[in-house]
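Hi all, posting the design record for the shared folder.

TITLE: backbone redesign
STEP: 1 of 1
STRUCTURE INPUT:
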């Protein structure tokens, strides 16, 4: 990206905050993703993987930390998709991004997950009933869940971890 295009990019970033603060993107923000987007001149699209538009954090990270390594993504230490502060951005893997999202509570889990069919209290209840000797297949049918999920929860996997944690706290 030439100097003139870099100036055009940075003109759309509110870098008035101190080093530790987020620098929000002032240009177009994609309503589906929440990421700022910047148009790339046709003459420079090859250096951006042939893309016509690139997310603002990717450009910021590339300008300051170097070109995107193959297979890498921009990770935000601030969790603000509109932030372009290079101090908040780094290259990382999708696995790292997922782990950070999980650790920071940004991944829906348990009853907050879009595919959850029963509440966490119901998970604890059905696990307790299964461990007390009730038939897993009958319980799975009653609660509208897959028997394999119930077996996993009984082993303390997935949502079963929460059930075990609650029992340890109560004891």
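Okay, here is what came back for every position:
SEQUENCE:
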């Amino acid at each position: 990206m030439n100097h003139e295009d870099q100036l055009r990019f940075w003109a759309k970033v509110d870098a008035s905050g101190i080093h530790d603060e987020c620098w929000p993107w002032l240009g177009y923000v994609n309503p589906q993703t929440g990421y700022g987007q910047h148009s790339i001149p046709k003459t420079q699209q090859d250096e951006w993987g042939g893309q016509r538009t690139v997310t603002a954090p990717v450009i910021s990270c590339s300008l300051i930390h170097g070109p995107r390594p193959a297979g890498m993504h921009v990770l935000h230490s601030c969790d603000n998709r509109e932030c372009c502060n290079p101090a908040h951005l780094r290259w990382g893997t999708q696995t790292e991004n997922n782990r950070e999202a999980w650790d920071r509570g940004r991944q829906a889990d348990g009853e907050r997950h879009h595919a959850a069919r029963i509440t966490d209290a119901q998970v604890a209840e059905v696990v307790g009933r299964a461990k007390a000797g009730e038939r897993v297949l009958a319980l799975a049918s009653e609660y509208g869940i897959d028997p394999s999920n119930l077996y996993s929860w009984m082993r303390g996997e997935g949502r079963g971890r929460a059930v075990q944690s609650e029992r340890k706290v109560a004891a």
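COMMENT: Residues 54 and 126 are 48 Å apart (CA to CA).
Let me know if anyone wants the other runs.
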